[in-house]
Specification:
- This protein is an all-alpha fold and 57 residues long.
- It has a domain of 34 residues.
- The protein contains two helices and no strands.
- Helix 1 packs across helix 2.
- One of its GO terms (biological process) is regulation of DNA-templated transcription.
């Protein structure tokens, strides 16, 4: 799993904290869900995005 650092305006971060508390999910899960929805909409409109081949360890 990858990790990303994200800078958000304070008011948006506060709203995310409130929504995640109401939904009883982590902020990470809430943001992941929102990003997945955005990717799904993109792919519905433009087609499946290609992924690079997996690297062997």
């Amino acid at each position: 799993m990858s990790q990303i650092t994200l800078r958000l305006p304070d008011d948006l971060h506060t709203k995310i904290r409130v929504i995640s508390a109401f939904k009883n999910v982590s902020q990470n899960d809430l943001i992941t869900e929102a990003v997945q929805e955005k990717v799904d909409r993109w792919e519905q409109k433009y087609g499946t995005l290609p992924l690079p081949p997996e690297e062997d360890d």
